[in-house]
Amino acid sequence: MDKQEFLDDLHQLNEDFKKYFEVKDSFTADLSLKLCDYANKRYPQLLENAEALSQIKEKSEVLSLKAFDYLINASDKEDDIFAQKTTSYIPKITTRSESEIELQDFLNDIPIALHESATRIHWIEYEDVIKQQKLDKEAHDLVKSVLVKHFEEEIMEFNSSEFHYIDNITWSFVTELFLEEVYASLR
Fold first, then answer.
1. Does residue 117 have a pLDDT over 90?
2. Tell me: the pLDDT tens digits for 17-57?
3. Which one, 3, 31, 85, 113, has the greatest CB density within 10 A?
4. Which of 63, 68, 81 is nearest to 150 (CA)?
5. How far is CA 170 from CA 30, 66, 116, in A?
6. How far apart are CA 160 and CA 144, in angstroms?
7. In which element (H, E) is residue 87 found?
8. At what angle do helices 115-155 and 3-42 cross, to 10 degrees?
């Protein structure tokens, strides 16, 4: 490698480095802002607690950086992360028919005399579960929408196991941890 090739490589490395930080700063600022906006709109009582808002903002910034790092690892395919099977919870909304199956399985295990009250309790709880699942899914979809906004080209090349990985990390390492911070602040 001659001197000019070395300087050209150094220049390209510098440009790539700048681009990396521009994308990182843009993505993390956008995701952090969206998470904070989500918390403020969903739970307006947080606006009355400056300490909680500060903690939520700090948590959103940290988690946004983590999300960026995980996504870079996924898009660079640096690790054999896609071969790993994961079983974590990813938010979805339980359908009424799925809930009916759960109820029937439960009723099969209890005395018939308890079926009526168990059924009534089940459907009351089902409504609460659905509300929480909708909130979880909404927050998770928000995180994924920011990912797509900033990395659509890279994500379009992913296969199904890579999509599952992204779903997993956006829930387990970003959305779920952020919601835990929000709920802790509400107590």
1. yes
2. 899 999 999 999 999 999 999 999 999 998 899 999 999 99
3. 31
4. 68
5. 15, 10, 40
6. 15
7. none
8. 150
Three-class HEC string of 66-77: HHHHHHHHHHHC
What pTM value is reported for the model? 0.78
Q: Which two tokens stand for residue 76?
A: 């660079």
DSSP state, residue 156:
T
Q: How far apart are CA 64 and CA 62, in angstroms?
A: 5
Amino acid (1-letter code) at residue 153: E
Structure tokens at 129: 């579960």
More reliable by pLDDT, 158 or 36? 36
What CA–CA distance (Å, rounded) separates 81 from 168? 12
b vs e for 13-27, b when ≥16 Cβ sit within 10 Å of the residue's Cβ? eeeeeeeeeeebeeb
Per-residue pLDDT for 74 more than 80?
A: no
Task: Give residue 143's identity as a one-letter amino acid code.
Answer: V
Cα dist from 70 to 23, 24, 31, 75, 129, whole Å: 14, 12, 14, 9, 30
Task: Return the structure tokens found at 162.
Answer: 């890579």
Give the contacts of 56 (CB within 8 A, at least 6 positions apart).
Answer: 35, 36, 39, 46, 178, 181, 182, 185
Which tokens go with 70? 């995980």
